[in-house]
Amino acid sequence: FDSMIKLNEEDRVESYGDLYKSEKNEFPLRVVLEKMLKESDNTALSMLLHQINLDDLQFLLDYYDIDIKVHVIEGVERKNLITPKAMSNLFRSLYFSTVLNPENSEYLLSLLTSTTFDIKAIAKLPDNVKVAQKFGVNYYGNDQFFHDCGIIYIDESRIFYCIMTKDLNKEEATKTIGFTVNEIYNYVIDAKAKFEKMKE
To answer: What is the pLDDT of residues 44-93, one digit of tens each?
Structure first.
C-alpha cells in the first residue's frame, strides 16, 4: 500500500474527481485506491489500470461479466457496457471473498462504507444500517450517467442493489437513487416483519 504510483499526463481524466488537477506526479497506492473507491475518481482508475497485466485484467473482466470493449448496436457505438448484474457479481465476490483473501475484501468493503456519495443520508436510512457502495459518475461531453451499487446490511440480512441512471442531471439522479434505495430498505423491513408474524 505504500508503493508509489505514477500519475502520467495521459492518466488525467476530467470526467469525475479532482486528482487530475494535482501538481504531484506520484502517490502511494493506498491514496490512489481510496480516491478511486471513496470519491469515484476516474484519474485514480486510470493510474491503477497501469498496475495490472492486460491478460489478468481481461480475465477479471470476464469473471465479473464486465465488457468494456466498444460495441455497435443498431448502428450506434456504445462503450463501457457495465450492467447491474455484473456489478452485483463484483459485490458478491467481495462479500464472499471469491477472488481476494477475506482481509483484503473486508478492507475494500470498509472503504466503500464511507464514500463521498452519502447514500445513507440521501436515502434517509437509519444510523444503525450499514451500506457498502460504489457510485460511478460520468458527466463529460454528451454523457450523463450516474450509478450506485452496493450492499445494504440490515441486521443479519444482506441486500445487494444496483441502480443505474442515464440522461438525468446530478440532482435528479441523486433523488432517484435515494428514493429507490429507501424503497428497497422499507420493502425488506416490511417483508421481514411479515415473515416474523407468520412464525407466530
So the answer is: 988 998 888 888 888 888 888 877 654 444 455 545 567 888 888 899 99
Grid coordinates belonging to 186? 422499507
Output the CA–CA distances (angstroms, integers) from residue 53 to 48, 50, 57, 137, in the order listed.
11, 8, 6, 26
Alpha-carbon distance of 118 to 140, in angstroms, equals 22
Sole residue written with cell 435528479: 172
Q: What is the pLDDT of residues 120-166, one digit of tens each?
A: 999 999 999 999 999 988 776 777 889 999 999 998 999 999 999 99
CA distance linking residue 34 with residue 175, whole number of Å: 25
pTM over 0.90, yes/no: no
CA distances from 184 to 102, 125, 146, 157 (A): 27, 11, 18, 13
Burial (CB count within 10 angstroms: exposed 0-12, middle 13-18, buried 19+), residue 91: buried
**Contact between 41 and 19 (Cβ < 8 Å):** yes
Q: Rounded to whole angstroms, how far apart are CA atoms 190 and 40?
A: 33
Quickly list H helices, the chain. 29-39, 42-49, 54-63, 84-96, 102-111, 119-122, 170-199
Share of the chain above pLDDT 70, in %: 92
For cell 459485490, the residue is 91
